[in-house]
Design brief:
With 282 residues, this protein is mainly alpha-helical. The chain has a single domain (12-281), classed as MetI-like fold. 85% of the residues lie in helices and 0% in strands. The protein contains 14 helices and no strands. The longest helix is centred in the middle third of the chain and has 31 residues, at 91-121. The termini are far apart.
């Protein structure tokens, strides 16, 4: 009487396994094409970051910190932090990690902003996608690695795939919220002057929702960076791999240096992306 009755059995796992088998059997070419596109984008960003010398990139980041945030001291701090990563011997790995993050954010924005717009313009779409986004944000990140491995094997592509799924919900949510909270009077005024729905969206709603959208981009970027270590478990090279190696060898110093390098990248990316929404508020 205490145990849960065995007669009540919902075979969700069997259904998911069957669906995965069907996808792998019938859409193998599609996933190969998607994997090829993702890999080319990652290699493009990686090639840029590895091609630009450190003595050029560090001043550029410092200049960006000064101009975007408005404090020259911030730019100097950014430069010193990047120099610290180089002093650890992790410059190339940091650039590979940054390439994975930027590529993940690129695909997340391609998916997330149009999806957020569709949610904002249709209540039924929002009702359907809201629980899906809840599940995507609360599902343990390890779970995303399983279908990624099945679809794409080992390497950068499955790491990117899992990262995109994990990181895309914030930009969808905040794009939706930003457009829905635009002043209705501004929308009505634009319609009164004969603006088409397209003009209302691109000339009124999106510009006024920009601070919220930028916060969504900021959060998506941070979540993509949080998947760095997870992605290294399935073959993505970068700082996350160094963390895993340090764990396996119980090397505290190496793990701390790699972890601190990830934190430094997170701080710099967070401050730069957050500055866009702050400037709009001012």
């Amino acid at each position: 009487m205490i145990d849960f009755p065995e007669i009540i059995d919902f075979p969700l796992a069997d259904g998911i396994d069957a669906a995965m088998d069907w996808l792998l059997e019938h859409l193998d070419g599609f996933f190969d094409a998607v994997g090829f596109i993702i890999l080319q984008v990652v290699n493009f960003f990686e090639g840029i970051f590895l091609f630009v010398p450190w003595f050029v990139l560090i001043p550029l980041v410092g200049l960006a910190g000064w101009k975007l945030i408005g404090k020259w001291k911030t730019g100097i701090v950014f430069m010193l932090l990047l120099m610290l990563i180089g002093s650890f011997g992790y410059w190339d790995l940091a650039m590979r990690t940054l390439a994975l993050v930027i590529a993940s954010v690129f695909f997340s924005l391609l998916i997330g902003i149009p999806t957020g717009i569709s949610m904002a313009r249709n209540d039924r779409t929002q009702a359907i996608l809201q629980p899906i986004l809840d599940g995507m944000q609360t599902m343990p990140s390890f779970v995303y690695l399983i279908p990624a491995l099945m679809f794409f094997g080992m390497g950068k592509v499955p790491a990117m795939f899992a990262t995109i799924i994990y990181a895309v919900p914030p930009v969808i949510r905040l794009t939706n919220v930003g457009i829905r909270t635009v002043d209705p009077e501004a929308v009505e005024a634009s319609k009164a002057f004969g603006a088409t729905p397209r003009q209302v969206l691109f000339d009124v709603q999106l510009p006024l929702a920009k601070p919220s959208i930028m916060v969504g981009i900021n959060q998506t970027t941070m979540m993509a960076l949080a998947m760095v270590v997870m992605g290294s478990m399935i073959g993505a090279k970068g700082l996350g791999m160094e963390v895993l190696v340090a764990i396996s060898r119980i090397e505290v110093g190496q793990g701390f240096e790699a972890g601190l390098s990830i934190v430094i990248l997170a701080i710099i990316i967070d401050r730069i992306t957050h500055s866009f929404s702050e400037k709009k508020d001012k």
